Amino acid sequence: FSSQVDSANAGRVLASDAAVFLKKSGLTDLVLGKIWDLADTDGKGILNKQEFFVALRLVACAQNGLDVSLSSLNLPVPPPRFTDTGSPLLLSGTASSDVPWAVKLEDKTKYDAIFDSLNPVNGLLSGDKVKPVLLNSKLPVDILGRVWELSDIDHDGMLDRDEFAVAMFLVYCALEKEPVPMSLPAALVPPSKRKPVSVPGAMPLIPSSTSTKESHQSLPPVGILAAKTPLTQ
């Protein structure tokens, strides 16, 4: 707590410091804003130690597919996961290759058959082709939107065979009344997407602590909390 976010050792965390730290959870700004609202009970834009622990617990809930609400605080969840890469794709970065894929082989065979029946082009299905399948589930549109966002792992507006399997898996979870997670759990990232993609010009993930710390100092200010708290620093 003190070394990572409470730099002044005052027993409290400012919105700006907390935002940079919470960003490392890989959750969306929308979810992090909701977590902040629930944790910052008096709306002062500052968290004390107790409130900060509430925020961390809510991060863990969101990462494990539970609702971000105070009622989730009593549920057993693994500790929250944070990364130092500063990358929003962090869950695919931390999904170690030895975590078994949540999509079982027999299910994958069924999903592949549906995939092939939709006439993929170059092994990819466009959103237009996937949409009717998703709508066919009769799930609420906002849930289907989240399913699409989570399954289009490389954000190219198309689903390949593995991404389509993730989409189908999430749809069936939702039909079983299981909440669709806010961010993709490591076990759901297809093994084919787990290797760190080396994009030319991408920042290499150097494990030395100095480089990651410096990269954080240069991060642009995070906008999620600005609307609520004027950050007069």
UniProtKB/TrEMBL annotation:
The record's section on PROSITE patterns has:
EF_HAND_1, EF_HAND_2, EH
Record gene name: Eps15
Q: Name its GO BP terms in alphabetical order.
A: endocytosis; endosomal transport
One Pfam family assigned to this protein is: EH
Q: Which CDD domains match?
A: EH
Q: Using the record for this protein, list the coiled-coil segments as residue ranges, or answer none.
A: none
UniProt signal peptide: none
Entry keyword set: Calcium, Metal-binding
Q: Name one GO cellular component term.
A: clathrin coat of coated pit
Q: Which residues form the EF-hand domain?
A: 27-62, 139-174
| A Gene Ontology molecular function term of the record | calcium ion binding
Q: Where is the EH domain?
A: 1-83, 107-195
Q: Where is this region: Disordered?
A: 206-233
Tell me what this protein is called.
EPS15 factor
Q: Which domain of life is it from?
A: Eukaryota
User: Which InterPro entries does the record cross-reference, listed alphabetically?
Assistant: EF-hand-dom_pair, EF_Hand_1_Ca_BS, EF_hand_dom, EH_dom
Is this entry keyworded DNA damage?
Answer: no
Q: Is Cytoplasm one of the keywords?
A: no
